[in-house]
Amino acid sequence: MNKMHRGGGLTLGEVVNRVRMRTNGRILSAEDIGAEYRIRVLTGKGKVRRLRIDPATGEIIR
């Protein structure tokens, strides 16, 4: 899970840790689909959020 993304930038593992800390939540799934990472997280407030993350910057796309 900690392999460098093909284009450089953040690894999936690094992004998962950032999302976990930012949301105070539990990661339900995380996948590298090439151009972006897709992460589902159960937030500390009990909501499931689906995030699309830019692997180069770690920014949320949507």
List the helices and strands and how they pair.
Elements lengths: L11 H12 L2 E7 L4 E6 L5 E6 L9
Antiparallel strand pairs: 1-2, 2-3
Largest sheet: 3 strands, antiparallel
> Alpha-carbon distance between the termini?
22 Å
Structural class: alpha+beta
Overall pLDDT metric: 89
Tell me about this structure:
- With 62 residues, the protein is of the alpha+beta class.
- The protein is built from one helix and three strands; from the N terminus they run H-E-E-E.
- It has one helix at residues 12-23, and strands at residues 26-32, 37-42, 48-53.
Provide a quick synopsis of the model:
This protein is an alpha+beta fold and 62 residues long.
Summary tags:
single chain; 62 residues; alpha+beta; 1 helix; 19% helix; globular
